[in-house]
Structures are given as structure tokens and as C-alpha cells.
Design brief:
The protein is of the alpha+beta class and about 280 residues long. About 45% of the residues lie in helices and about 15% in strands. Strand 1 and strand 2 form a beta hairpin.
Length: about 280
């Protein structure tokens, strides 16, 4: 029986997630915390798949039905609606990136007259190592994706000595700039910039990488004073492989791949071509 607005509005949460079917694969998923999500179950090329259609009440029953019908039209044309959505998101990201680059280049061009001789051509210098504390520079291995990103940022930073220049007194962007940017993207109270370090540490440990590699990568000092006095290993080759696998993991998530991290210390990637963790 199709759902009604009243039934959707009065859907009660239970101890376990429940599905309220509307027909045609569309259903309302009600979680134990009371959150309600529209989902569409469908098959494509013999595989059972699920398409997210939004959150109730932001997306109404009528809106969800329209989205379901649109997805069915794609299926009728032998198009996977999930893949179609990913392509649309990628196109939107590229468009936003182009807009940001144009604004950044315009800003740098306008700032040229105010720059002094202490700045030099960024193409003539190597990328500065990342560090958690400015008073303690550290060598930080980077993934291929990170190196490409820094090269792109350097190309739009003008003649600044910094990757993220700022007209402020210090000359570089503060950490609050990134935090407030996350707030504007809707993550206020849900995530912080520093929190990404905790996420990376947790998942890298779950994936079976050695804690010593992870702590060195996070620029954490050895707490054991005796061990700190004798162990000065940087584990650079191991950390480089670890960060490359971490970047590949994030790329797969961004593309919609399903990555499962096991307690046994290994990661299984259900997308083709994924590599196992390097121990």
C-alpha cells in the first residue's frame, strides 16, 4: 500500500531500522535515532543497489516520488541512476574548482603591488614540509594526490612564500579560516579541521599500519622518554606508502566505492584495482 503524508509524518522510531514501502522500490528508512531517509531499491545489470533520495521532511513524499520516477526513466534508458548522480557531482565539483581558481588568480593579481621583496618565485622553491608546530619543522611524506594539489595551489599563490597566502600581518592563512569555511559548508558542531587528524589516525590503525608510522606522520612526539632518546627513526619509505594508500582510500570513497575496515587490521575495498595495506 502506498504511503500517505500522515503515515510518513507519524512514523515512529524503533529499536531497529525499519523500512516503510511506498512502491516502485521507494521506501522510507526510519532509524532508531528517529532520522528518516528516502531510499530507492533497484536492480541494474543483475546487481541489487540502493539510491539515496534525500532526508525527510526536507524532501517530501511527493518530491521523493518524483525522484524515484526520474531514476526509473534513467533505468529505462539503461543508465544507472547512482552513476549518473556521481557524474553530476563530479561536474559540479569541477565547476566550483574553476570558479575558485579564477577568483584566487584575480586576488593574487590585485595583490602584486603590495608584495615586497621578501617574497620570491614559488616555482623556484621546493614544497615546504608540513608540520604540526611551526617551531618544529618535520619531513612529511606526501601522496601523489597531495603533491599534485600543492603544485596546483602554488600555481595560484602568486609570488607569496606561502601555499595559503593572506594579506594579514603574518602573511599566511590562519587555521580558523579553514574552520569557518567548514562551518559555512554545514559542518558546524559536526566536525573540525583538527578532527580529520583523529579520523585518519583511527582508520590507519584499523587498517593495520604500525602505530610508530602513524604517530610520526602526525608529528606526535614519543611519550616514552627513554625510547624517544634512542629511537630517531623517521620511517619515511613506510610512511610514504601509507599515505599513498590513505589517499587512494579517500579517492575511492569520493567516487562512491564501498570500503570496509576490519578489526583484524586489514582493509577490503570492493572497488576494482584496490591494493591491500602495506605492513
Amino acid at each position: 500500500m502506498p504511503l500517505t503524508d500522515t503515515a510518513v509524518r507519524n512514523a515512529k522510531r524503533r529499536e531497529r531500522p525499519q523500512k516503510l514501502s511506498d512502491g516502485g522500490g521507494l521506501h522510507l528508512l526510519v532509524n532508531p535515532d528517529g532520522a528518516r531517509y528516502w531510499r530507492m531499491a533497484y536492480r541494474y545489470q543483475g546487481r541489487q543497489k540502493t539510491l539515496a533520495l534525500g532526508v525527510y521532511p526536507i524532501v517530501s513524499l511527493a518530491d521523493a516520488r518524483m525522484a524515484r520516477d526520474a531514476a526509473k526513466k534513467l533505468l529505462a534508458c539503461d543508465v544507472d541512476p547512482s552513476q549518473a548522480r556521481k557524474k553530476q557531482k563530479r561536474a559540479a565539483r569541477l565547476s566550483a574548482k574553476d570558479t575558485f581558481e579564477a577568483v584566487a588568480r584575480e586576488w593574487c593579481e590585485n595583490q602584486k603591488d603590495g608584495w615586497t621583496g621578501r617574497y620570491h618565485d614559488p616555482s623556484a622553491r621546493p614544497a615546504a614540509p608540513l608540520c604540526a608546530r611551526r617551531s618544529a619543522p618535520r619531513d612529511v611524506p606526501l601522496s601523489r594526490q597531495a603533491v599534485e594539489t600543492f603544485a596546483e595551489l602554488r600555481s595560484i599563490a602568486g609570488r607569496s612564500a606561502y601555499v595559503f597566502p593572506s594579506p594579514g600581518a603574518e602573511g599566511f592563512m590562519s587555521n580558523n579560516t579553514m574552520l569557518f569555511a567548514m562551518y559555512r559548508m554545514g559542518f558546524h558542531g559536526r566536525a573540525t579541521v583538527h578532527g580529520f587528524r583523529a579520523v585518519a589516525s583511527t582508520l590507519l590503525n584499523e587498517m593495520g599500519f604500525r602505530p610508530d608510522w602513524i604517530e610520526r606522520q602526525l608529528a606526535h612526539d614519543e611519550r616514552n622518554k627513554v625510547r624517544a632518546a634512542y629511537n630517531h627513526a623517521q620511517y619515511l619509505p613506510e610512511r610514504r606508502r601509507m599515505m599513498q594508500q590513505w589517499a587512494d582510500y579517500l579517492d575511492d570513497l569520493a567516487e562512491g566505492g564501498k570500503v570496509i575496515v576490519h578489526q583484524s587490521g586489514r582493509a577490503s575495498n570492493l572497488s576494482p584495482g584496490a591494493a591491500a595495506p602495506v605492513r
